[in-house]
Specification:
Helices cover 38% and strands 15% of the residues. By secondary structure, it is an alpha/beta fold. Strands 2-10-9-6-5-3-4 form a 7-stranded mixed β-sheet. A 3-stranded antiparallel β-sheet has the order 8-7-14, with no helix packed on it. The longest helix is centred in the C-terminal third of the chain and has 18 residues.
Length: 385
């Protein structure tokens, strides 16, 4: 089976992990700080905080900007459920802004219209979470203009987008946001096994993120609220979580950072080959905008109903039968039973629903070979015949 995505592990990665296993620290040691600095420096952000998952990073990003009961958070339906769940963990209400059918990202025009209506109703969101779907940045400059007008916070769900660029600047620099979050899951651009990062340029947010990932505890004297009893002393200043990353994971992530640009370049090579090999098939191919240099976490095609009567399920099952490990990204969040119970229903976000009906993620990863890719193209031709 050729998977839709997989990790790319080198001998150097294995050696880096082994070195930590033989060291004094398996967790809460120096490799985590080195990894955080590597990512922050790469992106040009002031701070990076490593965690055990991007879901954890999204959760405490919401906590850091004081999302709580009664607040409203908006995101896009075309994402993994974690993007919306992070607000629900904080007790906030969630709503969605439909996607742009060309980029698969949050529609700025729909966002602007919904914000205007929300302002009139006196119910503006506290936070907007745009998602950089498949590694292509949302239109952050336009979203920032709306942020300046309406006063909401912005958390970038950049889970797909480490190594991507927007307006020739690395995603994660937080030029137009308060916090940006990366995922380090094995199918992402680089991996730490499991893991995530939150980046920010705000010192106060950095302090909150750092404390909240470790039970709300600080050992920094300047952050203490009470008299220090001695060198052993620490304080819990907030109700945080154990969301720490281990040094074992950080060692893998730090080693992978050395090949991040190579990974992205390989993905672009394979995406370009797909662009050249697939146009004759009844498929709608993904579009790259001029303002964004995607990290290409995914290559999503859509069944073109104007050129074939085949439905997505038939094609999907045929591809799996032929040994192609395709997947679907994503079931629109508002269609899951939990969110339907909150009042959402089919038809609420038609662009995301129409996309979902026909979308298939086909294999794309840096360790893929051209012969494997040719086999994917051959199987697509057979499945769509």
């Amino acid at each position: 089976m050729i998977p839709y995505g997989r990790q790319d592990i080198s001998d150097e990665d294995v050696a880096a992990v082994a070195a930590v296993l033989r060291s004094e620290f398996l967790t809460q040691g120096p490799v985590i700080s080195a990894f955080e600095k590597s990512v922050a420096d790469y992106c040009g952000a002031k701070h990076a905080v490593a965690m055990n998952s991007a879901t954890s990073a999204l959760h405490i990003a919401c906590m850091a900007v004081d999302v709580g009961a009664g607040d409203l958070v908006w995101t896009t339906p075309n994402t993994f459920v974690a993007t919306a769940n992070c607000a629900r963990y904080c007790g906030a209400d969630v709503d969605f802004v439909d996607m742009d059918p060309l980029t698969f990202n949050m529609s700025v025009d729909l966002l602007a219209g919904k914000l205007e209506q929300a302002a009139r109703a006196g119910r503006l969101p506290k936070v907007v979470i745009p998602v950089h779907f498949s590694g292509q940045s949302a239109d952050m400059r336009a979203i920032d203009a709306l942020r300046q007008k309406y006063g909401f916070k912005v958390i970038e769900d950049a889970s797909h987008a480490i190594g991507a660029r927007y307006e020739d600047v690395p995603v994660g620099r937080c030029t137009y946001s308060d916090i940006a979050v990366f995922s380090l899951h094995p199918v992402k651009i680089i991996t730490s096994g499991e893991g995530g990062l939150a980046l920010t340029n705000d010192d106060a947010l950095f302090t909150k993120l750092s404390q909240l990932r470790t039970h709300g505890i600080t050992r920094v004297a300047s952050e203490m609220q009470q008299d220090v009893d001695g060198p052993w002393y620490y304080e819990m200043n907030a109700l945080g979580y154990n969301y720490r990353m281990t040094d074992i994971q950080a060692a893998l992530g730090l080693s992978q950072m050395e090949r991040l640009d190579k990974f992205v370049a390989k993905r672009h090579h394979f995406a370009k080959r797909y662009d050249e090999l697939l146009p004759e098939l009844p498929l709608i191919l993904p579009v790259q905008t001029r303002s964004s240099h995607s990290s290409l976490h995914l290559y999503v095609v859509q069944i073109d109903n104007r050129r074939t009567n085949l439905d997505r399920r038939t094609v999907f099952e045929k591809l799996r039968e032929l040994g192609i490990g395709v997947n679907v990204h994503y079931i629109p969040v508002h269609l899951h039973p939990y969110y339907r119970a909150l009042g959402f229903k089919p038809g609420d976000f038609p662009a995301s629903e129409a996309y979902y009906k026909n979308a298939i993620s086909i294999p794309l990863y840096s360790a893929m070979t051209e012969s494997q890719q040719d086999r994917v193209v051959e199987a697509l031709g057979e499945a769509l015949a």
